[in-house]
Design goal:
171 residues, Chitinase A, domain 3, 3 helices
């Protein structure tokens, strides 16, 4: 029988609080760059046109179209600034050098909790997509899996109590 190790994560400190680095896969970087270009080059022009049209309606104090366009512009500019910061601090995890022996960002892993198996890819926080099978490295499960190998048991504290998963396979 394979020797297993148990890793209990008691205090969860997101890596975002430890450094400015934003860890991501190559696909995640490409997706952020595409979103940034769309927002900066086309969406920004669309919002400016909406704002200009709303201003043309006259009295701005009672102009709901103007308020909506102004709010959309503020949200858009905030997202553009957020993307610029993430792209500036992006650190792409080399997927070509991924080990099939230990879990790391970019690893595709199958874990078991009781009788249920779950397969997902461990990604940086900017790429999280639970419905698409992408789990954050900063989630309680993600943090406890980093550095583990097939056969290891990881446990962590969740809002509903201690959870334990067994690493079944790295793909």
């Amino acid at each position: 029988m394979a020797k297993t190790s148990v890793k209990v994560v008691k205090k969860l400190i997101p890596t975002a609080l430890k450094s400015d680095e934003v860890l991501m896969t190559r696909d995640g970087l490409v997706a952020l760059e595409e979103e940034y270009e769309i927002l900066k080059n086309s969406k920004r022009k669309q919002v400016a046109a909406r704002l200009k049209e709303a201003i043309s309606f006259g009295d701005l104090s009672e102009n709901s179209e103007y308020e909506e366009a102004k709010n959309e512009q503020a949200f858009l500019e905030g997202r553009i600034m957020e993307l610029e910061l993430m792209l500036k601090n992006a650190k792409v995890v080399s997927e070509s050098g991924l080990s099939k022996q230990i879990v790391e960002i970019g690893s595709k892993v199958t874990v078991r909790n009781g009788k249920n198996d779950y397969t997902f890819t461990l990604v940086g926080v900017t790429e999280v997509d639970p419905m698409g099978g992408k789990l954050s490295n900063e989630s309680p499960l993600g943090m406890s899996l980093i550095g583990q190998k097939a056969g290891d048991i990881v446990s962590f504290e969740s809002p509903s109590g201690i959870k334990s998963y067994t690493v079944i396979k790295l793909h």
